[in-house]
Design a protein that fits this description.
With 354 residues, the chain is α+β, with helices and mostly antiparallel strands. It has six helices and 21 strands. Helix 1 crosses helix 4. The chain binds flavin-adenine dinucleotide. The site of flavin-adenine dinucleotide has 42 residues, from helix 1, strand 2, strand 15, strand 19 and helix 6. One of its GO terms (molecular function) is tRNA (5-methylaminomethyl-2-thiouridylate)(34)-methyltransferase activity.
Length: 354
Amino acid sequence: MKQLDYIIVGQGIAGSFLAYQLMRADKKVLVLNDETLPTSSQVAGGIFNPITGKNLDKTWLADQIFPYLKSFYSSLENEFHTKFYHETNLYRPFANEQQQKHFLRLTDEYDLGNYIKIVQSDNVDYQQVVNDLGGLYTSSAGWVNVPKMLEILRDFFKNKESYQAQKIDNCQLQISENSIVYKAFQAKRIIFCEGYYSLQNPLFNWIPFNPAKGETLLADVESYNISEIVNQGFWIIPLGNDKCRFGSTYIWDRLDWEPSESSKELISSKISKFLTLPYKITGQEAGIRPTTKDRRPFIGNHPLHKNVYIFNGLGTKGVSLAPYFAEKMLDFLESDKVLMSEANIERFYSLYSL
Ligand SMILES: Cc1cc2nc3c(=O)[nH]c(=O)nc-3n(C[C@H](O)[C@H](O)[C@H](O)COP(=O)(O)OP(=O)(O)OC[C@H]3O[C@@H](n4cnc5c(N)ncnc54)[C@H](O)[C@@H]3O)c2cc1C
C-alpha cells in the first residue's frame, strides 16, 4: 500500500493551491481528480478586484489578501516560466448621473484612496466604451487565466507522481482514527476540494452552500484597445488579439452546467449598453460557483472524523481567496495554528447529525 501524508480530492483552484503548498512543505500528496466533470475553475473569468458592488464595498480581508495574491501568482509565474496573471486594473464608467453621485460620495466617505482614482469623461483611453460621465479606476485588480494555470499545476503534480485522474468513491473510503485508506493508498489525512460537487458528498452535504450558476461569453471585438477590465455590473476582460470575455450571470434556481439562450441575450444586451464597437460572439461557457450562504469559505475538519477536511466555499472569489487561505490551511494542518473563525466550518457544527 502506498503511504501518503495527504489525499486531496479535486484539482480546481482550491485543490491545486492546497496540494502545491503541501508539496512545498515536503509532504507526500496525491491529488485525485475526476477529469470528466465540468468545473467552476475552468470557466471562471478569473477577476480579482478589491472594490466591488453597488456600494464600492472593500472585499473582505482586501488589505491582507491582495498583497498576498500578487506575490503568490508572480512567484508561480516565475517558477513555471508561464504568464497567466494579468495586472490590468479595472475601469468602471458611471452608468448614469445618479450612480456617479453615489460613487463620488462613497469615494469621499470611505478611505479608498489606495485603490480608487476618479477618471474624467474626456479620457482618451476609454473612447471605445460610453464614457460621457467619466468613472472610477481601480488598481490592484486584474485577472488570472485560470485554466492555463491549472494545466501547468496539473503537469507539475503529474511529474511528481502526485496526480491521478479518477473520481473518488466515498463507499470505498475507509476512515479510522489514525488513517485513511482508499484503494491502494493509505494517507494520514484527506482533504475534499470538490467545489459544487461537495453537495453530493455525504461527509459534507450538511454545510449551507448556496450555489450560483454563472455564464460568460467569448467574443471578437475588432480593434479593441482598452487594456483594463471594464465593468458596469457586467464586465469585459481584454484577452488580447481583439478577443474578449463578457460576463457574467448569477442564477440560483436552475443549477446545471449548460449554456442558455437567456443568459446569452442578457449578457449581450448589458454589454451593448456600454461597448460602442460591434462584436461577434464566438463562444459561451457555464459553470456553478461554490457560493455559501454567509459568503465565507468552508474550511476545517469534519466534526466527527478529525483527519477528514474540507477546503471549499470560495464562491465568486476563488482567485483572490484561494492563495491566502491555502497558506492558512497549511499553517492549520502542519503548525497547529488556529483557523480564522469566520472561515472555519466549526461555525456550522450544530447542523451536523449522524
Ligand atoms: C461563470 C463564472 C465566472 C466566475 N468568475 C470568477 C472570477 O472572475 N473571479 C473569481 O475569483 N472567481 C470566479 N468564479 C468562481 C470560481 O470559479 C470559483 O471560486 C473557483 O473556481 C472554485 O474552485 P474549486 O476548486 O473550489 O471548485 P472547482 O473548480 O469546481 O473544482 C472542483 C474539482 O473537484 C473535482 N471533483 C469533484 N468531486 C470529485 C470526486 N468525487 N472525485 C474526484 N474529483 C472530484 C472536479 O472534477 C473539479 O476538478 C466564477 C465562476 C463562474 C461559474
